[in-house]
Amino acid sequence: MDDAYDLNLSADSLTLVVDLDGTLVHTDMLYETFWSAMSRRWLNVVPALRALPRGRATLKQALEGLGPVDPATLPYNQVVLDYVRNWRDQGGRTALVSASDQKLVDRIAGHLGLFDEAHGSDGRENLKGAVKAARLRDLYGAGRFAYIGDAEADLAVWKDAARAITVDLPAGRAARVDAQSPVTEHLTTRAGRIRPLMRAMRPHQWLKNVLVFLPMLAAHQFDLLTIGQVLLAFAAYSLIASSVYLLNDLLDLDADRKHPRKRKRPFASGALPLSWGTVAVPALLVAGFGLALFLGPAFIAVMAFYYAVTTAYSFWLKRRPVIDICTLTGLYTLRIIAGGVATGIPLSVWLLAFSIFFFFSLAAMKRQTELVDSAASGTTTAPGRGYQTTDLPLVANMAVSSGYVSVLVMALYLNTGAVRQLYQETAPLWGICLVLLYWLSRMVMIAHRGQMDDDPVVFAARDRVSMLCALLIFGFALAGVIL
Question: I want to staple 447 with a disulfide (CB 3.0 to 4.6 A). Which of 105, 380, 452, 482 is the partner?
Fold first, then answer.
């Protein structure tokens, strides 16, 4: 393999032709424009489906109009950008040639300022594979250009290139390029994809699904059947929730790329192809509902309602101030309901009331964190949300007041006859209220100082003080049982 920057084939006599999808950018613009269109208006799927029978070039042109992408936020491949700059420094000409729509290719080329020419699909002819090879022969002549690509379809182009440069090509396909091309270079710019897929599924967020255990714990019902039902409910909920997380990330690409931390997410950063997410979303959904079948129609109905609400949240509700917080609160509480439905354990009104106020506080805290980040970066709004930074004091007050009301509900519950039936001694349980008051106050203060991650639950799972508070709550509850 030649050195990646050894241009012995005289850069000034060759045109460096650069592919776009998977080469210049760590993404595919067909999927980018599709998900951009869906994020703007889910009914955009209708004109997209109408364009599909007329060919991929027509579809790309339609999606480019429905979901224009901001070139400034795309995950560019820095290795390829450096290669192009180095070629130009050697006096060579460069061209961006892609199967993406011409308007999109022009915008990206204009943004980068690195290309002398830009060619894309025109709505009729899809500039890919043999079609691209024929166009390049007409433009430059066989053997008069170097080509950087990444796909099986590029084999036809590399066959006519004086220099074949591959990007993240599998070993078998790279060997085929070596066999047919006089000079080859193989650039490796991306690690494996399984780890980014697992990150995108957010298994750390499955911690929220532990709430399905709460009805069993509150009722002190620990037989093997109930435990098995709860474990199955947890697994089903986690798979379906991961499907939702992937969908939300696909719809939030533009907003995530403008966020100081979320831009590192697998889809936003380009570490994971959007095509993988497009397949994984329905696959995880089917797997989750497959497990839900074993828990009966009532549990399936709860999960269907959960998915409907979360989908509405991804497309619309998350951009509506206050409504988004109420929705997140309902989704937390729905996990408790799912645990009750899966096990057949009746849910206490006190438990539901506590969960509503407590999770409203956490949801408001989540928005507080995002607004603090926005204020620190100098922006007036939270990207992809319906809040302004001037709303920050009000949102913080919502988090504090709702959290304190949840502690009040807990205190009132401790005086009921149901508690005296479940616990030998109720006095230690008052310690739970004190710990919750401290923990909620501390969490709001951390969010206020801009020291919290995006999700309070995830932050708490890594925070030593929060874990100590959880142990204290468990200790007080245990003391109430055994004393």
Answer: 452
Q: How far apart are CA 475 and CA 473, in angstroms?
A: 5
Beta carbons within 10 angstroms of residue 465's beta carbon: 13
Please give the structure tokens belonging to residue 93. 């000409």
119-129 in b/e form (b: 16+ CB < 10 A) is bbbebeebbbb
What pTM did the predictor assign? 0.81
How high is the pLDDT of residue 10?
Answer: 55
Q: Are residues 358 and 475 in the same domain?
A: yes
pLDDT of residue 260: 79
Last residue of a domain, one of 187, 208, 243: 187
Q: Please state, for a pLDDT cut of 70, what percent of the chain lies above it.
A: 97
Which burial class, exposed, middle or buried, applies to 239 when counting CB atoms under 10 A from its CB (0-12, 13-18, 19+)? buried
**Does 411 score more than 60 pLDDT?**
yes
Tokens for 194, please give them. Answer: 């399984």
Q: pLDDT for 339-398, tens place per residue? A: 999 999 999 899 999 999 999 999 999 999 989 988 888 887 777 678 888 999 999 999
Q: How far apart are CA 220 and CA 235, in angstroms?
A: 21
Domain annotation covers residue 1: no
What spatial distance separates the first Cα and last Cα of the chain, rounded to whole Å? 74
Question: What is the per-residue pLDDT across 215-268, written as a single tens digit (0 to 9) for each?
Answer: 998 888 999 999 999 999 999 999 999 999 999 899 989 888 988 788 899 999
Q: What is the CATH number of the domain that holds 240?
A: 1.10.357.140
71 plus 210 within the same structural domain: no
Residues 440, 365 share a domain: yes
What is residue 394's predicted lDDT score, i.e. its pLDDT?
94
Q: Using alpha carbons, list the distances in angstroms from residue 373 to 147, 255, 367, 376, 447.
A: 42, 13, 10, 5, 10
Distance between CA atoms of 165 and 186, rounded to whole angstroms?
6
Q: Let me know if residue 306 belongs to a domain.
A: yes
**Separation between Cα atoms, residue 440 and residue 219, nearest integer Å:** 25
Task: Please give the residue range of the domain that contains residue 404.
Answer: 350-483
In a shared domain, residues 168 and 22: yes
**Torsions phi, psi for 18 (to 5 deg):** -115, 130
Mean pLDDT for all residues in the chain: 91
Tell me, yes or no, whether 102 lies in a domain.
yes
Angle between helices 349-377 and 430-448 (to 10 degrees): 20
Say how far apart CA 234 and CA 216 lie, in whole Å. Answer: 13
User: Which H or E element spans position 398?
Assistant: helix 392-413
- 107 with 69, same domain: the answer is yes
pLDDT of residue 283 exceeding 70: yes
Is the domain of 363 the same as that of 264?
no
Residue 181: inside a domain: yes
Q: Examine the domain organization and report whether 199 and 331 are in the same domain.
A: yes
- Residues 307-326 as b/e (b if ≥16 CB within 10 A, e otherwise) read bebbbebbbebbeeeeebbe
User: pLDDT value at position 6?
Assistant: 43
